[in-house]
Every structure is written in structure tokens, then in C-alpha cells.
Amino acid sequence: MSLSQTPSGERVHIGFFGKRNAGKSSLVNAVTGQDLAIVSEVKGTTTDPVYKSMELLPLGPVMIIDTPGIDDEGELGEKRIGKSRQILNKTDIAVLVVDAAAGKGEQEEELIHIFRKKNIPYLIAYNKTDLTGEPETGAAKGEPGRRSDRDENREQWTEAAREQEREAGAERHEIWVSAATGYHIHELKERIAGLVTPEGDGRRLVADLIKPSDLVVLVIPVDKAAPKGRLILPQQQVIRDILDTGASAVMCRENELETVLSSLSRQPRLVITDSQVFAAVDKMVPDHILMTSFSILFARYKGDLRQACQGARALKTVEDGDRILISEGCTHHRQCGDIGTQKLPAWIREYTGREPEFVFTSGTEFPEDLSGYHMVIHCGGCMLNEREMKYRLRMAVDQNVPMTNYGIAIACMTKILDRSIRPFTALFS
Q1: Residue ranges in the chain whose pLDDT is less than 50
Q2: pLDDT tens-place string over residues 248-257
Q3: Which helix (H) or strand (E) holds 217?
């Protein structure tokens, strides 16, 4: 991956939802300006979520997601609907596409309820206005007209429904469009952009821990799991954040760390290491120098560092047969010595002296029901966006299941957790 390419986890995720043949795929193509999704008059053409990373003005880097219809039928259709609902967990902005002639029904109303419950900013795009005639004057400016003035073939609303939606401010969420003619497509993009949280929300990987001109040492093991010829994504992102701060980064493998530290003309402000070599690095770095890991940085950046530290305590109460879920946000090819499926289980057995049962998930697969697990140990989540990572954390809290992070768990088992979170002491004060 090029350093200049925005990772998917850092892109605004825009999900397009709606019934079959509402024109979701056509609208996605119109918004992106390319034939991203297959378009057909046949219901259910989109059978799986379609992802596309792109630059979408005026938003910048986004991830567009075209989803299967929420009214799909049959056993396979139910699975497709399940996939669409799963996309909601990572959706930063939702676009509900409604056939302007048919109007909203129960399924659309249920989705709107979910948007509100999950606090997902959303727009309702009434598509196919080229077939229903020009909308009212207000709608011609990109705003919905009054419901009482809509054509007879549009959904009829009761006074109670109108009042309920007025109270919820629903009309501010609507726009009339036509994917076929391009009507209000530019306005739709502008409205979507208006729902994006401005940058500068305070989330930083490492920049708030260092100052300009500081020196940061990065310990990066090179083993079979390391991609040949490049750095993994967390390392890339940390390096970029250091450079953006005006600080300097020095990189080495764990075998060269002592030599590098002794050769530096000034003391590093911070040492950041791969969690797999935590114990070795701890012995080489003097205690007065702050030290943490890439994984722990991501535990704070994408999730909840306090929750991860508390969740690690569950390692002390593991018993034989307890089920431990080890989950990764990506689907990389497993190799000999893989940290998630091999190293972590081995370390946990050694630390606890017990024989728990390990369950592994990766990518978008994450169980809705966590009640059968003693604890969850999750990767740093560099491939997941913040919304999905925090959704998983909330699930664990709601079901009273301890959840921690690879780096936190390793620091706990190597008895250096207090030291590894020392750079973030202010968070716990």
C-alpha cells in the first residue's frame, strides 16, 4: 500500500440502502460518476455488498457501499438482508433510496428507526423523479416539498405520522433525485458532505504524545508475517502522524535496538514497539523513557483504552474450557507463527496454565451473541473504521463480556501493562 493512499479504515463509509429496484445501484453510479454497480430491471441484482474506495468531491476519500435490497425474499434473501444490516455497523453516513412513486413503507421506516438508534446521519433520496414528474417548488431546490402537496401516487400520510416526523425533523433529511437524468445528484453530494463530522475531532494516533523536534524510536520486527518490501498499515500511519507533528522517527528491528539507543545523541521522547517483542524491548529501554506499542496506540485511536485495560483482567480468571474469542479486522493470509491464531493462544496457555477453547473470526465476521465467551481479544482494528470498532466494543459492554486488545493483553501477560500505558496517564486521571 502506498503511503499516499488513504486506508479504508480512515475513509468516510457511505452506505446506500433501500428496497430492490428502488434504484440504489443506479444512484451509486450517478454519485460516483462510474459504473460501480451492475444495474438491471431484475429485482435483486445486487446480491452482496459492493465496496468502492474513491475520492468523492467535496468529501475527499470515501468508501461507497451498495447493499442488497432490504425486501429480498427466501432463505438466501434473508441472508442478504442480514449482510445489509451488518453494513450499518460500519456506516458513517446512510443514504436511504426510496422509489419516489411508491414512497416509504414499513421496511424503510424500520431502517430510519435503526439509523436514529445507532446515531447514523442519514438522507432519504427519493429516486426516479423523472418518472413521477417534477417535484414541488421547494423540492426543486433540493429540499422536500410539503407532504400534503405530493402527487396522489405517493405514499399517503396520516396526521399522526406527519406530526411524528415533523417532531423528528425528518424533512431536513430528504431530497428528490433522479439517477437517470442526474437531477439533484450534485445537491445530493453536497448534502452528504454536510453530514460528515469535520476533521479535528481530537483523535490522534501519537501526535498528542509528542512535540515538534522530538525523537521517536520505532521497533519493527521483520519476520515471516511481515509483508515483503513494505511496512504494515499501523506502522505507516504512526510514521505519518510523527512526521505531521514535526518530530523525527528512527526505525530498527529489536535486535538492533540497544545499538541504536546507545548511538543517539539525545534521548528519545517515546519508544513504540510491535507488541510481539514487548518483553525484549522492555528490558532494553530504560524505565525513564516512555514506551508503548502500535497496538495500544490503536486501542486508544479506534476504541476505548480504559475498557481494553479493564478487559485484560479477565486473563487472570481463565479456566479450562472457557471460550476466548480472538478477532481480527482484516482477512490476511495466515502464516506459520501468526499472532492471532498461534502466538496469542500459546502465550495465554502459558500465562494461565489452563486449556481454554479458542474461537477465531476475521474481517466483517463478528458474532452478535458474545454471551458464551469468557472474553474477547481484538486486534488494533487498523482496517476497521472507528464506528465499527466502537460498535463491537459496545456489544461487549452490553453483554457484560470483557474485551481487550492484542497489545494490552500481551502487556498484561508480560507484566508491563502499567509501563505500556504510562504515556496515556492523563486519560485515567
Answers
A1: 1-4, 38, 40, 42-45, 137-159, 161-162, 165-170, 200, 333, 336, 429
A2: 999 999 999 9
A3: strand 215-219
334, 363 contact by CB (below 8 A): no
Q: What is residue 100's DSSP assignment?
A: T
- The string of DSSP letters for 240-262 reads HHHHHHT-EEEEE-GGGHHHHHH
What are the residues facing 65 on neighbouring strands? 15, 51
126 close to 175: Cβ distance less than 8 angstroms: yes
Q: CB of 334 within 8 A of CB of 341? A: yes
- Tens-digit pLDDT profile for residues 19-39: 988 999 999 999 988 765 545
- The answer for 221, left when phi > 0, alpha when psi is -120 to 50, beta otherwise, is beta
Contact 233, 382 (CB under 8 A): yes
| Maximum Cα–Cα distance across the chain | 80
Cβ-contact 35, 29 below 8 angstroms: yes
Q: How far is CA 169 from CA 116, 139, 166, 323, in A?
A: 11, 16, 5, 45
Output phi, psi for 306, to 5 deg: -60, -45
